Amino acid sequence: ADTLQQVIASWTVSSQQHTHLATAANVYTLALLYTDRHHEALKAAASFHEKGLLDEEGGYNYGVAALRRGDFHAGYQVLSQAAESIETPSFDFSYLAAISAFNLGKWQAAEFFFKKSLNQDGNPSEKIDPAKKAFFQSYYLGLAQFRLGKLESAYSTLEPLCQLNTRRGLDEAFFCIERQQALSIALHCALQLYSKTQ
After folding, report:
1. Is 0.70 surpassed by the pTM of this model?
2. Which of 5, 67, 110, 179 has the smallest CB count inside 10 Å?
């Protein structure tokens, strides 16, 4: 990683070298991420982003670095921008933008990006288990809807999660806490909706 940093620093930003710089910037950010140097990865990615050196994968890795460092503002900025501007992305920017928005308490943005992510086809470059991702998309979407006071939507989103079982390929222990919370909020929504009809 350090050698690559020296190579990048020695290059000039010219049209002939832009593609090579973008590739090198992405590899450098990945090298820092894989060696758990998240702070350095975020700092480097932010610098590359400011210089316009990040391609789609580099922008994704910048967002991942930001999330791993807990910098949800930076993550939201870069991921939401990519989620809105790239028509057919190779990565699910919407999902990570939604996670960032959720952690910032931006409930409307979280709802918007989780819905967008749920409506997108799977991304071949992703390493997350599709069943786990689908669960968390719906789980956090339901929580965001609940925070927005959309009780009927939150109930409709969370209630199916309470019905999931291990036959659908989900690890029972892994989802136990989330399923209990989904059930609790779904019941709360149902009770409030019922009381409004009486």
Report:
1. yes
2. 5
